[in-house]
Amino acid sequence: MPATSGLRQPRPPFTAMRPEVPLLDVVVARERSAERPPCSLDPLLSMNERIRTLLNGRQERLRRASGRELSSPQGDPAPLSAEDREHLLGDARDLYWNELEWEHLTGEEQMDDGAIVDLTFPGFLAYIRGLLLAETMPDSLAPASPRPEIVEDVLAFLAGRMVALKEEITGASQGEEQARLRMALVMTSRLLDLVLFELYALTPEEIASVDAQAAPEA
User: Rounded to 10 degrees, what is the CA torsion of 215, 123, 159, 205?
Assistant: First the structure.
C-alpha cells in the first residue's frame, strides 16, 4: 500500500537497468537526452503527443466496450508536493522494473501464448490498488488517502515505456534481444490496460468486452 500520509517507504533494492521515466509534462526533455534510435514511424510527433495519442486510444476503446463515460474516482483533497508526487511515481517505476526484470530472468509466469501479466506484476498492481483505496479497516493506523492523480502519472509512464520499446524494437537486430523487447512491449501494453481497469473500476463483464475487442500488440 502506498505511503500517502507523509511517511515514506524504502524503495526496492534492485536498481540496475532502470532508466528514469518522468511525469508526462517533462518526459520529452529526458527522453530526448537519452541515446535512442529515431522512430521512423512518427518522426514529427513529440513524445508527449505520442503518449497522449496512445492513452486516448485506450480510453476510447474502454468507453466503446463498456458503453459508458469513464471518470476517475475522487481523490484526497489535500495537495501533494511535487517531491512527494515524484516519490510515489518513483515507487511505481521501481516495482515495474523489478518485476519485469525478474520475469526476464526467470520466466516464471510464461505460458505458450505469453506471460500472465497479472501474476508477473503482483506488487505493482497491489500498489495501484493501494493508491486508489478509498476506505480502510477501522483499526488502520492511517486514513485512506486515494491518489488517482498518481495513477494517471503511472499511466503516462507505461505509455512512455511502450513508445520507447517500439523504438528499441525498430533498432534491434533479429534474435534474442528483439524477442525480449517484444515480450516487454506485450506485457507493458497489458499492464497499461490493467491499470486503466483499476482506475475506472471496470466490472468483470466490461473487462471481458474490452478484451474481446482488443487487438494483439505488434
Answer: 40
